[in-house]
Amino acid sequence: MFFSYFKVPLYSPWDAEIKSYFHRDRNHCIPLLSKSHIISGFPNNFMTPALEHAIKVRAVEYANTSGSSNQVLQLVRYKNWWSGEFERSYSYCADMEGYSITKDRKALLTTAVCSVTSCYLDNPVYEQRIQGSILNLNTHPDPTRWTTDDIQRIDTEIAQFRPGLLEVDPTYLMIFLAKRVVFGLGAPTYRPRYITSSYEFLTVGARRMLEAAYQLPVFSMFGATEFGVLFLQDSKGSYKRCGYETVLELHPFIPERNIYELIVTSWKNELMPLLRYRTGDLIEVSAHTDPAKIFLPSDDVEVLKLHGRLSDSFSIAQGEVKTVADLDDMVGRLGGFIQQYQLIITLDVVSFKYVPGPLSSAGEEVVSIERELRSWFGVEYRIETVAVSFIPPESSGKFRLVKSELPSVAQ
């Protein structure tokens, strides 16, 4: 496994340490590496003879991360890399037994800016958005502006394509369902066999709406453009590790609550292997998990909850740190009829913007949320709740649940 890292210029300072690292030796001197380390000097910092040859024979494809962390990471990999990655990942979920991305169809409802398989700068027709067995449904950069025609087109295309799997950004599918109610279009025409959620944080409210509409469990899939899929949830809510050619570590964030930043070492993309890469993503593990362990591909990691981006965490009164999952648990518990929300924190004001569900004003729920936020932030902040008709996505196409002007709690 460690041979993938030799001859990679970025990792040459630690050639002598890499072998001992893969033998779980904690006495190595390899630092944690961030996006900035990889961005600097790309692609020369990964220019091995294998990459040089692959580029020469045009066997590679290029991609970018979404930039939701405010840093866009350029990537290079062999063509059709994601096909094998998805095929392996789905096999870890017993509930999806029998589904094959090479034999069955999949429809994607995600950002139109870019998905892991394609990017569009124009408005392609149905046939142009089919790549092999995959249909890309969205052509609009902002789903909050979908019209009746957009909703009907998406519904018709899903029914026409008849995918076994509907893979979604959960907020996009939630908006699709809410607009169907507003436009009086009724229930979706077609129900797939499976629904997986990825691309951004799956809120309690989104899961509730999606599962009610389709009468199916939604399998949360955790991963990233740069390292593929790491965990896939099953119908019992358990996260199954997709450990192929990946080593994981836990970096303390709120260790007293068993919340850690996930550190990834992965050679799945052999042209651009990652070494002790800081993902910026937070997970909560079971109390009996050894946080000092280096988890090799065959080792289980008992993940209890995904806590969102480290950069979206924030401090409240007495210095306590809250994560996106903490906020969402509270909103999900108190605001059952809220469709979308966004918490905006300035130096003296905490503003909770929300979109009520299509058949609710969410009045009583918001009073409870305001009370809870006041208990979090104390008297030093003015707490306000603002009902809005929509919350637009960021330029990446993703939606921010937390925006803060305060100093980052990132470590």
UniProtKB/TrEMBL annotation:
Cited Gene3D superfamilies:
N-terminal domain of ligase-like
The portions of this protein that span the membrane are none
Listed name of the protein? CoF synthetase
Organism, scientific name: Pseudomonas brassicacearum
Q: Which SUPFAM superfamilies match?
A: Acetyl-CoA synthetase-like
Q: Which domain of life is it from?
A: Bacteria
